[in-house]
Amino acid sequence: MAKDRKLGVIDMGTNTFHLIISSVQEGSFQLLYREKVAVRLGKGGISKGLIQPDAWERAIRTLEHFREVLNRHDIPEVYATATSAIRNAKNGAELAKDIEKRTQIPVQIISGEREAELIYLGVKKALDMQDTTSLIMDIGGGSVEFILGNQNETFWLRSFEVGAQRLLDMFHAHDPILPEDVEKLYEYLDVQLTPLLNAVKTYTPNTFIGSSGTFDTLSEIYLAETGQAKDENATEYPLPMDKYLGIHEELITKDKTERLKIPGMIEMRVDMIVVASCLINWLFLRIPSLNSMRVSAYALKEGILHSVIDSIQEDVKH
């Protein structure tokens, strides 16, 4: 492998766009730069299957900014991946073409299954699952990925279009969320996530692992409540299951203004975190075998990075 190869990875999520720049050497990476922007690509149009003009412009502006950052760091090699919002929008492919035309960044639109595979790859680099069967969950704005597996293999994985922006549009009309709307949300998940409940009967996971933004924020709330500092270099964040359940009760009884006052809360998560937390709580209600909780600092973007590193190593071997 060429010494100190630098790569840029862009994860174009439904809610948030992430950019990471890394120096890659000998099968591992060192993070040089990271940035996230709340693009809210699915806002106002996700239930219609369209990216709205204002969201389109936010996407273009963000990618133009990322292009400037990449140029500043002299990064010729960039891997940009688009997920649920672009994957399912009638004008998603058109947006991907427009981005490439304006920024010279080619965008790969990946399937939900590929997204789940890459999330698993990211998570297994962050923490050691050993031989324990774990249920990994990644909550996006458009889709949610579930993976059943251990450190060595996946047994089952699937992507469902029940992301936080979709659930927010469908069930969070009142603030604080009404108990009857939480019940409707749970009933909806019972139907939509039946394949997951069937898979869980076969593989019986004991450990629950969360990855991506919602879990980062939940962990930061826990750290703030207990007076602990966040370790920015950690690959796993603390969030005990019993403490999460207490935070969940807090989230569903507060309105937006009150939620913003919770130490550790960030504005870009304050709207979606309620339905996202309901989704997590639903899992614990429906899957009693889950008895511990972990939070991975790595998710899709690190999975993309590791898949690139693995392919580089394969090229070197050949």
The ordered H/E elements are EEEHEHHEHEEEHHHEHEHHHEH
Shape: globular
CATH-assigned fold name of the largest domain:
Nucleotidyltransferase, domain 5
Helix share, percent: 40-55%
Q: Quickly name the level 1 CATH class of the largest domain.
A: Alpha Beta
Please give the domain count: 2
β-strand amount: 15-25%
Low-confidence stretches: none
**Roughly how many Å is the radius of gyration?**
19 Å
Q: What do the pLDDT scores average to?
A: 94
**Count of DSSP H/I helices:** 12
Gap between N and C termini, in Å? Answer: 12 Å
Q: How does the helix and strand content classify structurally? A: alpha/beta
Number of strands: 11
Describe the structure.
- This protein is of the alpha/beta class.
- It has two domains: 5-109, Nucleotidyltransferase, domain 5 (2-Layer Sandwich), CATH 3.30.420.40; 127-298, Exopolyphosphatase. Domain 2 (Nucleotidyltransferase, domain 5, 2-Layer Sandwich), CATH 3.30.420.150.
- Helix content is 46%, strand content 21%.
- It is built from twelve helices and eleven strands.
- The protein has helices at residues 53-72, 84-88, 92-103, 112-126, 164-171, 179-192, 194-203, 213-225, 241-253, 256-260, 273-286, 300-317; strands at residues 5-12, 17-25, 28-37, 77-82, 107-109, 134-139, 144-149, 154-160, 207-211, 236-237, 292-296.
- The strands form two sheets. Strands 8-7-6-9-11-10 form a six-stranded mixed sheet, sandwiched between helices. A five-stranded mixed sheet has the order 3-2-1-4-5, with helices on both faces.
- A hairpin with a 4-residue loop joins strand 6 and strand 7.
- Helix 1 runs parallel beside helix 3 (92-103), helix 5 crosses helix 11 (273-286) and helix 6 (179-192) packs across helix 11.
- The longest helix is centred in the first third of the chain and has 20 residues, at 53-72.
- The chain is globular and about 50 Å long.
- The chain starts with a strand and ends with a helix.
- The mean pLDDT is 94.
